[in-house]
Amino acid sequence: MLQLHKKYVDEKFDEHGILCEYTINCPDNFSFAYDVMDVLAEKEPDKRAMRWTNDKGELRDFTFGELKKFSDQTANLLCSLGFAKGDKLMVILKRHYEFWMVALACHKLGVVLIPGTNLLTKKDLVYRFNAAAIKGIICTAEGDITTFVEEALHQSPTVGMKMTVKSPRDGWLFFPDEVEKQSESLERVSIHRTDPLLLYFTSGTTGMPKMVMHDNSYPLGHIMTAKYWHNVDPEGLHLTISETGWAKSVWGKLYGQWLMEAAIFVYDHDKFNPAEMLGVIAKLPK
Fold this sequence. Notes:
The protein is an alpha/beta fold. About 35% of the residues lie in helices and about 20% in strands. The chain contains ten helices and 13 strands. It has helices spanning about 30-45, 65-80, 100-110, 120-130, 145-155, 175-180, 225-230, 250, 255-260, 275-285; strands spanning about 10-15, 20-25, 50-55, 60-65, 90, 110-115, 135-140, 160-165, 175, 195-200, 210-215, 235-240, 265-270. The strands form four sheets. Strands 6-5-7-8-9 form a five-stranded parallel beta sheet. Strands 4-3-13-12 form a four-stranded mixed beta sheet. Strands 1-2 form a two-stranded antiparallel ribbon. Helix 1 crosses helix 2 (about 65-80), helix 1 crosses helix 3 and helix 2 (about 65-80) packs across helix 3. The longest helix has 17 residues, at about 65-80. The two termini are about 20 Å apart. The mean pLDDT is about 95.
């Protein structure tokens, strides 16, 4: 284990080994994608970063080296489509592995990532597109969400790009076809820790949802989550069930887990069935 996280925290323990002081150290130019993920790709390119499976029985493992390659290609794709630092991209990708490629690509470019759940409808999308001045959307082709997006676009003048994953749709770019055309070489974009990284819309308990922005220091806050709450194993797999449209996803199966060099396990499914999920876990190869 490289112990990368120790570069970013100071920890003190009492005589019983209990953590008593904890301070985060975030460099001014910190970027999770470059300073954590790309370093892991350089130092341990063949180490498993993610195991993905779905309710159709498909199975894929991704190494840190592969995630660098795919995220660099995705970043170049976004650049070719006119995305640059500060632009906003909505992603509605359920638990598809493409979510992690797009997220890292956005982080490398300084494009603000806006995750959304596939439960959104036309009204929800129109509000979000206009409130955040969203420039484009990458969306699952499963279910009805692409139809709702198309209906919402008539009232959403800032959205100029739409792309699907999993299956093509007329009038949409198709992620697998577009990303494979891209170079695997990417120059580092200058990122500051206070630059916006991630934007979530709250659940809207009273009134319409409110926008909550996180900057580039945010991932370091989840070293604590993964190390002391989830107690992740650098040689094991960590499962968080959350769909990627919810904030639980990034603090359950992205930042802290990879800062602690643990692999994440993703089960891509529609309806939660505990017995089915346990069966999938039991049958998985090591």
